[in-house]
Design brief:
With about 170 residues, the protein is mostly helical. It has 2 domains: about 110 residues, no CATH class; about 40 residues, no CATH class. Helix content is about 40%, strand content about 10%. The chain is built from 6 helices and 2 strands. It has a two-stranded antiparallel sheet with strand order 1-2. Strand 1 and strand 2 form a beta hairpin. Bound molecules: zinc ion.
Length: about 170
């Protein structure tokens, strides 16, 4: 084997600053952070290390993918719209509810001292499974009242607000 192949590149370092809030939660979940962890002071240095560790373990793209699904699951959960299949996939990714809750809490708190750099791209919420609103059509048929007095309305398709990307998704 050529020597150049043996000298493997170091894994890409991911800085906590480059990750959005939800991505940090995903990274923390995958890190060595103890599940019962309590923050050590207002700028706990362990947190940045764990975020970087978890993101390196999963890889940048997988961290992002899981974060998108986590955001999508949260979006449905808040509206009581999760399906058994979507819940099942969510639990496969995050078997421990308690650990996820702690990871989310530590991630949110980290925003106070590890600011998000412009390199952190906007994160779309994605649904992992058939959309419970439009059944994956991606659009919804709506009657939109244009004028209340005359009862004039228009019908047509609009992008599904559950599964289609919103403008300015964060
Ligand atoms: Zn939909």
């Amino acid at each position: 084997m050529p020597a150049t192949l043996v000298a493997m590149q170091a894994p890409t370092t991911v800085l906590a600053e480059e990750l959005s809030n939800v991505e940090r939660a995903v990274a923390l979940y995958a890190s060595d952070m103890p599940t019962g962890y309590g923050l050590q002071g207002p700028a706990d240095p362990n947190v940045a290390d764990w975020i970087a560790q978890g993101a390196a373990r999963l890889g940048r793209e997988e961290t992002r993918r899981r974060a998108s699904y986590l955001a999508g699951h949260r979006k449905l959960w808040l509206r009581d719209m999760t399906t058994p299949e979507i819940d099942r996939r969510h639990k496969v990714r995050f078997p421990s509810k308690r650990r996820l809750r702690i990871a989310e809490s530590v991630a949110s708190t980290s925003l106070f001292w590890i600011r998000v750099t412009p390199a952190a791209r906007a994160l779309p919420a994605e649904i992992d499974g058939p959309c419970p609103k439009c059944d994956d059509a991606g659009k919804l048929w709506v009657n939109q009242v244009i004028d209340d007095t005359s009862g004039w309305y228009e019908e047509g398709y609009v992008p599904c607000w559950v599964c289609q990307p919103e403008d300015g998704a964060a």
